[in-house]
Specification:
Layout (H helix, E strand, L loop, with lengths): L37 E2 L2 E2 L10 E3 H8 L5 H9 L9 E9 L5 E10 H10 L5 H18 L8 H30 L5 H10 L1 H14 L16 H4 L6
Antiparallel strand pairs: 1-2, 3-5, 4-5
Length: about 240
Amino acid sequence: MSSRNNEAPQCANTNRASIENNLAGNIDMNIVAKTDFNFHGVMLTPVNNVPGIWLTSADVAKALGYKSTKSISNLFSQYEDEFSQGMTMVIESVTNGINGSSRRMKVRVFSLRSAHLIAMFARTPVAKEFRRWVLDILDREVTQSPIAKQFTDEELCQLCWLWRHATGMAGYMMDVEPILTAAEHRLAPAYVSYPKDTIFNRNKVRRMLERETMHIGVDHRTEDNWRVLRNLRIPELH
């Protein structure tokens, strides 16, 4: 029983608002018109057919004043561990040739938040201005969103642990209940009813937290406080 209590989380302050949940579709990332992406005369074209606002590495390179996309690839490779899952991805792009033929190629794209991070590592003269421009776009996006998020990732992490401990406590009560019943203890009825009565709400909260944390990637190797999601992303309680 003590093993359930040995997880005392101190959620790291990721300082990352959960509004970045673009892949989950919880926020309309297209609120900012896709024609409104002109940075210092460089027209940037958000990727089509992808939920949210994503820029290709070629566009980010142009905006930052690099001559080649390779500069962006090098920056990403050098600081890849700084990018969390959901900030960047590789998609397949189809380009049309002169003779009408099409060519498929893999292209790395960046969310606005990861484009800002790339610009943090860039050393070009316009990098500072580009960072400010990206933040302006993100600010407008949040202001105009009808369902802007209320919780930071740190707060979501803490709520996930609260759910985890409530679920663990219900399990403790189920374990102790037979002993209390045998001893005719006055709390025995509560230890029978509470775990059963709270299953519905605990399942409902689990689904809400699972939805709000879809942008957080975890697996069996995750060691930070987001390991709690391994318990959250399980079949419902019965």
